[in-house]
Amino acid sequence: MKRGGSKALNEQDELAKQYGVEARRPSPSGEEVPVSEVGRHKILAALKALPPAQTRQLASNLPKCFLPDFASADRVWGLSCQLYELRSGRNWGIGDFADLRAVVGLAKAWGADFVGLNPLHAPFLAAPDRCSPYEPSNRRFLNPLYIAVDGVEGFTASRHVQDEIEQLRLLPLVDYRRAARIKLDVLRKIWRSSRDLRREKSTTDREFSEFRRDGGDDLRLHALFEAISEAQVVSGGEAGWHRWPEQYRDPKSETVSRFEEEHADEVEFHIWLQWLAHRQLSEVADHAQGLGMRIGLYLDVAVGEALDGSGTWSNRGIYVQGASIGSPPDPMAAGGQDWRLAAFHPSAIAEGEPSPFEKLMSAVMRYAGAVRIDHAAALRRLFLVPAEDGPDQGAYVSYPQRSLIATLAALSKRYRCVVIGEDLGNLPKGLQAQLAAANILSYRIISYEQTKSGFKPPEDYPSLALACVSTHDHQTFAGWWKAADVEMRISHGLVSGDAGRQQIRDRKRERRQVLRAFKAAGLPVAAMSEATARENDIPALAVMAHRFIAKTPSLLVAVRLADVTDEKQPTNVPGTSDTYPNWKPKLSITVEELAGLADTHPIIVAVGEKRRPTRAGRSGQVEMRTQSVRR
Predict the structure, then answer these.
(1) Where are the alpha helices (H) located in 127-263, listed in sequence order?
(2) pLDDT in tens, 384-407
(3) Strand-pair category, 337-342 with 305-306
């Protein structure tokens, strides 16, 4: 019995090596612990449908991603925001592409060279409250809720519609359900009223037909998914395909084919929505370039997709079945995390012409001057959690890093698009150096840039990086200073009482250390100390933090609008789902009111002073991308 068990274990060890399943994972204390035999077996079961990924040793001569000409002379900055959080006097209770155009103009007037956004991937239109931009239904398509309906040809609105829109504008949180209902109702009316007037010879109809043809089966299947999803919800079912009747779960079934024939107009409507979103986003990207912004739009790419969304339904063979993406236990989440996201299969992600990864990145880069890859460690490995088990049973699985970087390099040059890798958290050894060798910018948040002796000085930041003070997963600098993030983790039960108290003590130490770093960098800290800093000193400290990162040699600096407007509610509290309204808080002021900050807001002034373009930089703007790359 003992010899037989040993033989089985050795076979599993060999299989794990073959499939790139790592034998150890981090623990909350930071030590490496073995992955359980049960967990490793379940991860192997989830991967065995396809041959193992090729995990060749990386050579030193990695393919290089695009860098703009001004990178040798200038360091630039931009704004970042969540598109849905924008308020305006004309939107429908959720930020849209017309608001984005206004912010682009505002950013340019302030001297910024880009506007960074949350992922714009397609959500579940039939389940609007599934609103996390990092758990989309399909990353290759756009979110129609960002369409500026009042900018669509044929738009008219009744008094009732206008009244509801005004109510939605006043809400402090985005009401996705109401916003989706009113937007889709009005868009359907436009679609139906214009359907009989369209002619093949009209310019717009030719553009739509071309868009539909270029989208091919992938676009058709996404639209078909949306139509079925809506029909299921209307009849009392679920938006996600895992809970659909069996005959609808296979896109090639006779039932699905019959549904498509009977609901052809509804499928066409969803294709039209994608076309409208594409046109409006393309117009904003072109507007940014027309204004002379040297980057333009900076778009985010989520690490995975919903397990039951359009992507996994229409092409499930390219995804891992029976496991989801997550993270191992760590000090911020002692039990680890299961993000419930579908992962591309490591043996399918880079296969085919074009590969799934190439299709995904092309779909984003076509609009962007820069893209950020969420969880860049996924280029080498992903932590997969077996279905029905917790993260303590998960394991890291290897991905074909060299092939993925080669794809990024080729596409970034084609689209003249800078690539940024979010390289935070548990990183495999050597990854940051390899990403830098491929001209993939690092992602540096001031609160993460610490050593045992304190905060890193500005000059120690890498030049190939984007530096920032806060992000959507963090409090503003003011919130960080007050330890509001720690209080959130404690109140939502994400850390134990002892761990929370230790994090409060750590924050007091960090406050002292960041003041020392500011003073060493020549910032006017004067006699202020962690103990004596008062409530009305915090805005000045936030300005110092932005001046600090503006001094770094990092190519890009992002200023978050939530820091500018000093938002009290965080965008997202990682690890929560039902206990906090993630992805719903709006900014406290409107886009129109933001326009009044140009000459007065100290954060904008401080960053702008440190990041003024050189004369060469002014004349060396990024070349205009041709219209053909966005078709």
Answers:
(1) 159-170, 176-195, 203-234, 254-262
(2) 999 989 999 999 999 999 999 999
(3) antiparallel
